[in-house]
Please model this.
Amino acid sequence: MLKIGIDKIGFYAPHLYVDMTKLADSRNVDPDKFTIGIGQEKMAVPPVTQDAVTLAANAAVDILDDNDKEAIDFVIFGTETGVDSSKSAAVYVHELLGLNPYARAIEVKQACYGATAGIQMAKGHIAMNPDSKVLVLGSDIARYGLSTSGEATQGAGAVALLISAEPHIMALEDESVYFTTDVMDFWRPVYSDKAFADGKLSNEQYIAFFTRIWEQYKAKTGMELSDFVAICYHLPYTKMGYKALKNVLEEGTEDVQERLLANYKLSTDYNRNVGNIYTGSLYLSLLSLLEQTEELKPGARIGMFSYGSGAVGEFFTGILQPNFQDYLNIDRHHGLFASRSEVTVPEYEAIFEEALPTDGSTVELDIDNDPAKICLAGIADDKRQYVNKVSRVAY
Ligand code: COA
Model:
C-alpha cells in the first residue's frame, strides 16, 4: 500500500525574543507563573519586516531542492493571521520560492487547526497523484495585547511540511477522529489585529475535545495508550498539552506513563522557547520531539492532537520511517535558536506597537537589520513588497 506522509520539515522563528522572567517582572507577576504555571521561557518577537508570508517562506526556503520545487503542485497555507482577505498567502510563498507554476495555491483557515486540514487534504491529493508533492505551511503571529492575560502566550513562527508518497520522516496512518462544535473560546473579528479569548473556556474546551476524541479514537480503532511511543499536542503554551495528557495518563502502566511524560517534555522544548505559533504549533512540537530524542526508533507510532478554537479538533497518527533522523535539519534549527537576540521588555513593547499603515500610504522598511532570507520590504500602492535576498525575487 502507498505510504503517504511527512518527507521534510522546516521551521522558522523571528530572530528576536523576550525573556519570560523579565516580562513577568515588568508585569508584577511571579516569574514562576509564566515559566512553570504556563510553561514558557522565551517568546519570539516578530519585527515589522516579518509577517505570516515571510515566516512561512523562511521555514520552507532551506528544505526544498530543485526536484521538490518541480514536483510540488499544491501549496496549502494554514494561517489565522494572513495578510489579505482575498489573495491567499500561498501565492506569495509560491512565487518567493520559485515553485513550478503548474500548481494550486490556497489558504486554509480554522484557527490553529488549518495546517492539519492542509495535511489531510495533501494526503488525499497524493493518493490520487502519487508523483506529486504538497507543501503545507502553518504560519502565524499570536497577538493578544500588552499587559493582557493572553500576553504570556504570544509568539511567532512557521513550520513547513513537505508531504509526499514514500515519505522519509513519518508515514501518516488512515484512521483519525475529528470533531466540530460551535464554541466562542477564541476568535478575532476582521476589524481587530489582536485575538479575543475566553481563556478559561478555551482551556476547558481543549481538554474536553481531547478527551472526547481520544475515547472515540479508541472505540474506532481498538488502540490504547500503550500503542503510542509519544503523543504531541497543539501547544498554545506548554502546560496546555500536559493538562490534556494527564487526563488520560492513568490508562497506561507505569512504564507507559513514564515514556509518554518523558517524550512530552522533549516535545515541548522548542515551543517553550518560541511561544504560541497557532497553526504550526503542533508540528513545532513534533519537530522538537524528533530533533531531541535519541530513543525513538523507526516503526514508533506517534499520536498528534490538533485543536483550533471555535472549534475543530482532530487526533491522527504517524509511524516513524527508517533512518528518519537523516532527513531532519537538527543543526540548522539548533543554530536558529542559538543565533537569536534578546530584546528588553520596552524594546518588545515598541516593536509590538509598530504598525504598518492602513491608509494606503507608502512605507519602505529597513530589511538590513533582519537576518531572514525573506523579508517584507514595505508597502506601495496598497501592495506588500516582498524580497527574497538570496534569489533576488522581489515584488
Ligand atoms: N507559580 C507557579 N504556578 C503559578 C503561579 C506561581 N506563582 N501563579 C499561577 N500559577 C499557575 C496557575 O495555577 C495556573 O495553572 P493551572 O492552569 O494548572 O491551574 C497557571 O499558572 C495559569 O494561571 P491562571 O491564573 O489560570 O492564568 P491567567 O488567568 O492569567 O491566564 C491563560 C492563562 C492561558 C488562560 C491566558 O494566558 C490566555 O487566555 N491565553 C490565550 C488563550 C489560550 O492560550 N488558550 C489555550 C487553549 S487554545
Remarks:
- The radius of gyration is 20 Å.
- The mean pLDDT is 97.
- The longest helix spans residues 199-221.
